[in-house]
């Protein structure tokens, strides 16, 4: 990736600012971005999907007072926000079971075409109050959103968004582009395409303490070969590794909760936080350029920064490996 994210870093994923799971007061959302900045965070990621533009609007307002050259900004394409509002009496909770039920009520239109990509970027620039984007990801072309039809959406993106973003990169309009997905299969296919040549992959939830085997074997080695960076989203696995009850954006199963309890028990024995283990495990992989946990309260940012700096004894990782809670060949921060 050209000239950005050269140093491993803690970034900020702004999905929660789109009122994910709860109605977040405006002042709290803006204060969270300010807290990230004051704690040294300089990479911010957003998307039109997050609250139908709400996260981008809030991020744009908060960053408008900051020097544009001092931070890296990414957003995503694949959905156009319409002026038309949903009828609340007929409203379906929508994708991911109402993930952004408390977001703006504008309808979203799926569009991975070239024209749709260019329109999405233009709209995002306005909401983000900026004249340029550093990274643009093609969003959610995977099974979790489109089921058996996901490959047709991938093909639409290959013919539309991929080519448009490649051209914009060549023209210097954007610095980098890639995929932003919750599954590894689209990344594997994109890596095998001769014409695609993406620079980065935002992989949410697929390289974490709870789930990393396939990414470790199928994604990381190929990313290194093609000099593409991995941005790890969802390091807390939708919150279950940070004291929450969600995994994969749904209520965590008893099996997942049991695995989390095992990790917590080991962390307690070594007097460390699970948050620290989750963040530092992700960044230990050489392919990972940044980890971007989400936050909706200023104090969560402070916790993330503290977790990055927490000292974790090698004995913790040894026990995690002995208990088969991390893969035998996974790079560890020791």
UniProtKB/TrEMBL annotation:
InterPro entries: AKR, NAD(P)_OxRdtase_dom_sf, NADP_OxRdtase_dom
GO molecular function: oxidoreductase activity
An example Gene Ontology CC term for this record: cytosol
Name of the molecule in the record: NADP-dependent oxidoreductase domain-containing protein
Domain NADP-dependent oxidoreductase residue range list: 10-322
Top-rank taxon: Bacteria
Coiled coil stretches, renumbered: none
Gene3D superfamilies per record: NADP-dependent oxidoreductase domain (3.20.20.100)
One Pfam family here: Aldo_ket_red
